[in-house]
Write a structure and sequence with these properties.
alpha/beta, Carbamate kinase, 8-stranded mixed beta sheet, 9 helices, globular
């Protein structure tokens, strides 16, 4: 019996030491990034699973509590499609972008409002100040008449964002813009990229449903701009990964420190990427 108790104590001590080592490994990164802005695009399956939701929001709250300034941009494609089906509207996609008429745009706005509130409430539950900053933030114009009310970001209200960030608030942004006449549906990856560029963020991180960019079955952990473009041209980077990689490339070219594609379905992937030596996913640098 005494041996069992001793074994438990040893295992508990080993676990405590591992946790301490993790904190020691994280400390230089916490110091390095204190006061910096991280833009995080939250989407994919991490938005559907309740445990993953809590994990992602907990990670973002931790960033804030250690002195980093996170900005959250959310997607919502699956939720929008679900509501469209309820309204007997068949989703139509043109080159990966959702065709958006006025009825669809109304659904996009309502769903985005619900998701934004859920994110803000979860961050508040983790003792963070969070606020929906969507209204008036993105000036847009129609991207292509064939896509209906799909918008292209023309301008981001940087002053509005910085004012809130400096007051300790985590901005939560929906992918909805305004073109002067109508609200526009905007790709969330694009919004995150444009926001990161406007803020000259230290990091842009896009949560995906895969580990990152692969070549011959092997994860590419680091990609330069030139190699990323070459891989798109050769077809190594294809389909839905192309706009994500291009968004990261454009952000880095326009002053963002680093861009990351990480798997949002792995618990604490944000913390692993930011606070460990090995990291996770694919990092895109100049």
């Amino acid at each position: 019996m005494q041996n069992i108790i001793l074994d438990k104590e040893v295992k508990q001590m080993e676990l405590s030491q591992k946790k301490a080592n993790t904190l020691i490994e994280a400390l230089p990164y916490i110091k390095k990034y204190s006061g910096k802005i991280f833009v995080i695009k939250y989407g994919g399956n991490a938005m559907i699973d309740n445990e993953l939701k809590k994990s992602v929001m907990g990670d973002i709250a931790l960033l804030k509590h250690v002195g980093i300034n996170p900005v959250v941009v959310h997607g919502g494609g699956p939720n929008i499609s679900k509501e469209m089906q309820k309204a007997n509207i068949k989703p139509v996609f043109v080159k990966g972008l959702r065709y958006t008429d006025k009825q669809t745009m109304a659904i996009v706005k309502n769903v985005s409002l619900e998701i934004n509130k859920e994110i803000s409430d979860m961050l508040k539950d983790d003792n963070c100040k969070a606020e929906n900053l969507t209204k008036g933030l993105l000036k847009t114009k129609i991207k292509d008449k064939k896509l209906g009310l799909v918008g292209k970001v023309v301008k981001v209200d940087k002053k509005k964002l910085m004012k809130k960030i400096k007051s300790g608030i985590i901005p939560v942004i929906s992918p909805v813009g305004y073109d002067g006449k109508n609200y526009n549906n905007v790709n969330a990856d694009t919004v995150a990229t444009k926001v990161a560029e406007a803020l000259k963020a230290e990091k842009l991180t896009i949560l995906t449903d895969v580990e990152g960019v692969y070549e011959n079955g092997r994860l590419i952990t680091h990609l330069s701009i030139d190699v990323a473009k070459a891989h798109i041209k050769s077809g190594i980077i294809s389909k839905g990964m192309i706009p994500k990689v291009l968004g990261c490339v454009n952000a880095v070219k326009k002053g963002v420190g680093k861009a990351h594609l990480i798997d949002g379905t792995i618990k604490h992937s944000i913390l692993i990427e930011f606070f460990t030596d090995k990291g996770i996913g694919t990092e895109i640098v100049k």
